[in-house]
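Translate sequence into structure tokens.
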Amino acid sequence: MIIGYLTIKEVAEKWDITPRRVRVLCEIGRIEGAAKLGREWAIPEKAEKPIDRRITSGEYKNWRKK
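Result follows.
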């Protein structure tokens, strides 16, 4: 990997989240400075973990049954 950049697996361990979640954050542009090099993502070492914007309140649970 390029000096100053981390892989998805390294970032997932650093931020204590799954590699799949890191990949999704890269794909939707939530990690600033992340770049795709072929099949791999290069994430800057100084990149900060974005705030989780997923809804976890349960507000939309069973929304189809209404």
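Note: Residues 19-27 form the longest helix (9 residues).
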